[in-house]
């Protein structure tokens, strides 16, 4: 049996024009965006916990006897990102990293992962997520703390 959670993430990213750096270690300037771009990304995130090839594996667990609680569980993930809701649809990248069951109350995660794209316009670029992730809520906002390639904030 396979348990699959499909999480849909929509990101709105603002990419700004390149600031010019001189040969010094540090200089603070007023940030002026010459060109503001908005990219809407729509894809499906497959987190498979069981079956022959789980994409999320338990790597650490708290030493506790209280049953039912997952508090402290840490999973490492390499989850595929696809264009459509089916796992068989075009894979456009993967989410690699961790999530931790970080709440002692209502189950909730802290997610730390890199959404790397391997297909299309954003091949080679990635988005860094470090955020609370209240998985029981159907609509969630996750913090994007940076990115690589086309999503680099100093691009
Ligand atoms: C869990 O229970 C075992 C056996 O009853 C006990 O030896 C152990 O100390 C307990 N661990 C914790 C973290 O409470
Ligand atoms: C993505 O980029 C890598 C490295 O440049 C390249 O090897 C690969 O063929 C590209 N994949 C697609 C689907 O464009």
TrEMBL record:
The keyword Signal applies. Residues 1-22 form the signal peptide. It is found in: Secreted, Extracellular space, Apoplast. Gene3D superfamilies: Allene oxide cyclase-like. It comes from the Eukaryota. Homodimer. Dirigent proteins impart stereoselectivity on the phenoxy radical-coupling reaction, yielding optically active lignans from two molecules of coniferyl alcohol in the biosynthesis of lignans, flavonolignans, and alkaloids and thus plays a central role in plant secondary metabolism. This is Dirigent protein. It comes from Hevea brasiliensis (Para rubber tree).
């Amino acid at each position: 049996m396979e348990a699959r959670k499909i999480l849909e993430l929509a990101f709105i990213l603002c990419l700004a024009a390149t600031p010019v750096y001189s040969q010094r270690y540090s200089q603070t300037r007023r940030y002026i965006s010459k060109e503001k771009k908005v990219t809407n990304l729509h894809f499906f995130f497959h987190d498979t916990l069981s079956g022959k090839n789980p994409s999320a594996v338990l790597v650490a667990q708290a030493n506790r006897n209280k049953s039912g609680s997952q508090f402290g569980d840490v999973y490492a993930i390499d989850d595929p990102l696809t264009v459509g809701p089916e796992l068989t649809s075009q894979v456009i990248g993967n989410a690699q990293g961790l999530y931790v069951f970080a709440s002692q109350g209502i189950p909730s995660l802290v997610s730390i992962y890199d959404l790397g794209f391997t297909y299309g316009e954003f091949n080679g670029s990635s988005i860094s997520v470090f955020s609370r992730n209240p998985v029981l809520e159907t609509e969630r906002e996750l913090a994007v703390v940076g990115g690589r390639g086309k999503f680099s904030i100093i691009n």
